[in-house]
Write a structure and sequence with these properties.
This protein has 287 residues and is mainly alpha-helical. It contains 3 helices and no strands. α1 packs antiparallel against α3 and α2 packs antiparallel against α3.
Length: 287
């Protein structure tokens, strides 16, 4: 009885062992390819994550470049706008520097007045010299008449025709001498007035020269500012063009990185799907 039971148990144990060995063998036949697929899927997923992380970093860096380029473009546009305003202001300043022409006109007029006054002075000097010469000649005639009168009075008497003629000549010469003296005084007055006018005109000339120099200095400064502002405008325009070019390129790079990110996401999603599929296939095969 016991021997029969023992024999039956031994047979069942051998049969169960055979089943286990067969299942293990079957699993050993199918497991390596499925495990290899799962391993490869995990590797692909890790690579996708790395690619995604790198592309996101590149995209973020490109976005920072885009933002910086936008600020640069904005600043350059403001700079160009300000340069245009400065150039317009400089042009107005140069256009308003008509003081130079006004100063030249004043200077020319004052020089003409000064030269006219100098001619008047020279004329007055000539008149004064002539009138003095006439006055001196008349004075000599008077002195000569006095001598003639004294001699004729002594020689012919005070009521003689010679004495009367001498007195007449003396009165005439005194009249001429006094007229010449008045002319001399008048010439002195004219000479003094013309010298005053000439000196005033010379002061005006000196002031006009100073004004002209100051206005020319201001005009030259405005021209220098205009050239500098134009140079700044051209440089800002160059910077603007360069920044716009950089912005376009950075946007292009940013968009490419975004496409790479989208592709990485799709690849990651596909690889995860493959992993789930391989795991499900393995689980079904085990059962």
């Amino acid at each position: 009885m016991h021997v029969h039971r023992l024999t039956r148990r031994t047979a069942l144990a051998l049969a169960f062992s055979g089943l286990l060995a067969g299942g293990a063998y079957a699993r050993s036949q199918d497991s390596p390819p499925q495990q290899q697929d799962i391993k490869q899927d995990k590797k692909d997923i890790r690579q996708d994550k790395n690619d995604l992380s790198k592309d996101r970093a590149d995209r973020n860096a490109d976005q920072k470049d885009v933002n910086r380029d936008k600020r640069d473009v904005k600043n350059d546009k403001q700079g160009v706008h300000q340069d245009h305003k400065d150039i317009s202001a400089d042009k107005r300043d140069i256009h308003q520097d008509k003081d130079i022409q006004h100063d030249k006109t004043d200077l020319s007029k004052d020089r003409a007045d000064r030269n006219a006054d100098q001619r008047d002075i020279n004329h007055d000097k000539g008149d004064l010299s002539k009138d003095r010469a006439d006055r001196n000649t008349d004075q000599r005639d008077i002195n000569h008449d006095k001598q003639d009168l004294k001699r004729d009075d002594q020689k012919y008497g005070a009521n003689s025709s010679e004495a009367k003629a001498d007195r007449k000549d003396l009165r005439q010469d005194r009249g001429d001498r006094n007229a010449d003296q008045r002319d001399v005084n008048h010439d002195k007055t004219d000479l003094s007035k013309d010298r005053t006018d000439r000196n005033a005109d010379q002061k005006d000339i000196n002031r006009d020269k100073n004004d002209l120099t100051a206005d020319r200095t201001e005009r030259n400064s405005d021209v220098k500012d205009l050239r500098s502002d134009r140079k700044d405008r051209n440089q800002d325009a160059t910077d603007l063009h360069s920044d716009q070019k950089d912005l376009k390129q950075d946007r292009k790079d940013r968009n490419k990185d975004q496409k790479d990110i989208n592709k990485d996401k799709k690849d990651l999603k596909a690889d995860r799907k493959d992993l789930r599929k391989d795991r499900s296939a393995g689980a079904v095969h085990k059962h």
